Amino acid sequence: MSRVLIVGAGHAGATLAGLLRQAGHRGPVELFGDEVDLPYHRPPLSKKFAQGELEQWLRPAEFYREQDITLRLGEHVVALDTAGRRVHTASGDAHDYDHLVLATGAAPRRLALPGTDLAGVVSLRTLADARILRKCVVERRALVIVGGGYIGLEVAAVARANGVNVTVLEREERVLARVASPRLSEILAGHHRGRGTRIVTGVRLTGLTGRDGRVSGAVLEDGTEIPCEAVLIGVGAEPRDELAAAAGLHCDHGVVVDGHARTSDPHVLAIGDVTRRPGFVRLESIPSATEQARQAVATITGGAPNPAEVPWFWSDQFDLKLKIAGLVPAEPATVVRGDPASGRFALFHLDGGALTAVESANSPAEFMAGKKFLASGTRLDPVRLADPATPLRDAVA
Ligand code: FAD
Fold this sequence. Notes:
Elements: E1 4-7, H1 11-22, E2 29-33, H2 44-47, H3 61-66, E3 69-73, E4 77-81, E5 86-89, E6 94-96, E7 99-102, E8 106-108, E9 121-122, H4 127-138, E10 143-146, H5 150-161, E11 166-170, H6 182-194, E12 198-201, E13 205-211, E14 214-220, E15 225-227, E16 230-233, E17 237-239, H7 242-246, E18 255-256, E19 268-270, E20 275-276, H8 286-301, E21 312-317, E22 320-326, E23 333-339, E24 344-351, E25 354-361, H9 364-376, H10 382-386
Parallel strand pairs: 1-2, 1-7, 2-3, 7-19, 9-16, 10-11, 10-16, 11-12, 18-20
Antiparallel strand pairs: 4-5, 5-6, 8-17, 13-14, 14-15, 21-22, 22-25, 23-24, 24-25
Bound molecules: flavin-adenine dinucleotide (FAD).
Flavin-adenine dinucleotide (FAD) binds next to helix 1, strand 2, helix 2, helix 8 and strand 21.
């Protein structure tokens, strides 16, 4: 009966612990997490934080007891001894393993600029961060959001809907430049601006100013200062791969894994946001963390490997329920189905007739069909696809 230690009690780690028991693994399962809260859902932290719906546990505390999963919360794992198959914690304990799974996630990227340590400057990854942000929004403090990525735009939508004065500063020429198509960026920027959010693109922040220790302004490269009372830094996340790197595991901006969650060490697996998968940019999403948790179960228990899944993601911004599948190519040929102005549309991105990604808003049927087409590599006819009166099954080329 092998002993499985999981480092990181976030979405990937906690999901894996439950799935191991479901697959019949009887050996000890220990879950180490340096946060003190029970494992929780992170997506609500940027979507529902103003309503106070923050503490959404993945499983109730009894689940871990009933499943005989040892939860070691508030325990930071500081070192990994791969030769001795042991981890060391900050409290000085050592724990042996047969299989170690690194599920340490990612941490918000920091900006080394003056003023980022002032009170009122936050980043968003944990429940503790979301509680601070909630207070800023409830108190209607003028908010500057540095970074027009998904988290920044989700927070902008919630803050604006609560009457906050919001400015989004984006270094690139468009919001979501790294993750969305140019068309989706344009539609979303319009949606936010139409609801009173100021979005400034192509600008670089040079620092934050303060008064009595609290942030009071965001300074741009050209010297402009935008007055504010709170700042969210949302400029992406870095994989927490320091344990793996120090132990000599192959890392390349993330722990490098194969399609079975295996690392370069035969007894160490890695899953979730900390990983870099073959052929992919780093995927930071719940579906990806869950898929890799299943891969790890198959590897540990010797079960049948799971077929590869189409990467997908979701986001909520105002009334738009966005669902995105596939990876948007650098220069997509985009077919628009539906009317973006109505808030119900899907963008299908083709490459020589083959679908590479679908970005949808309030269109679950288009999203599901797109995901299936992506999985099967189906070729589509752009003219029929663009006509909402033509059923999607008839858009197959
Ligand atoms: P995490 O959930 O970050 O868990 C890692 C855990 O490991 C953390 O608790 C960390 O403290 C702990 N840890 C790290 N190092 C150590 C150590 N040395 N010792 C002990 N513990 C350690 N994804 C979607 O698909 N849809 C969304 O809408 C969406 N919205 C999001 C909104 C926000 C605000 C954020 C932050 C993320 C969102 N994501 C979303 C991404 C999603 O939450 C992540 O992809 C997912 O949480 C990854 O799970 P993980 O277990 O790899 O990492």
